Amino acid sequence: MHDLQIDPQEVKQKIDRGEEFVLLDVRERWEHEICRIDGSVLVPMNELPARAASLEEAAEVVVYCHSGIRSLNAAAWLRAQGIESARSMAGGIDRWSREIDSAVPRY
């Protein structure tokens, strides 16, 4: 699986350009309550199998979590389900907070 990760800077550029893609947060609800990236859709990992079909029509899916481990697993799983556009945001929301938007709380 090539090109499975995307850097936060590239995600920010996509947002700034108004590109159509699903920004998928696979963290737990309590984590999402602490912080999130505006416009993201929360689908905790344990709900992903039941809700994956809703992502099939998306032109692109960018998955994120806290540090990038869960999202990497989720993106690989989504690709195995036929959602070839799925990619994981490297470093997760923690890296996003450090490099893109320091107003996003770190935890």
Describe the structure.
- The chain has helices at 8-17, 29-34, 48-51, 69-80, 92-99; strands at residues 5-6, 22-25, 41-42, 61-64, 86-89.
- The chain has a 5-stranded parallel β-sheet.
- The mean pLDDT is 96.
- It has one domain: Rhodanese-like domain (Oxidized Rhodanese, domain 1), CATH 3.40.250.
- It starts with a strand and ends in an 8-residue tail after the last helix.
- The chain is α/β, with parallel strands linked by helices.
Walk me through the topology.
Layout: E1 5-6, H1 8-17, E2 22-25, H2 29-34, E3 41-42, H3 48-51, E4 61-64, H4 69-80, E5 86-89, H5 92-99
Parallel strand pairs: 1-5, 2-3, 2-4, 4-5
Radius of gyration, taken over Cα atoms and rounded to an integer in Å: 13 Å
CATH C-level:
Alpha Beta
CATH fold topology: Oxidized Rhodanese, domain 1
First CA to last CA: what distance? 30 Å
- Oligomerization state: single chain
Mean pLDDT: 96
Elements, N to C (H/E): EHEHEHEHEH
Share in β-strands = 5-15%
Largest sheet: 5 strands, parallel
Supply the number of structural domains: 1
In helices, the fraction of residues equals: 25-40%
Sum up the overall morphology in one term: globular
The parts where pLDDT drops under 50 for at least 5 residues are none
Q: What would you call the structural class? A: alpha/beta
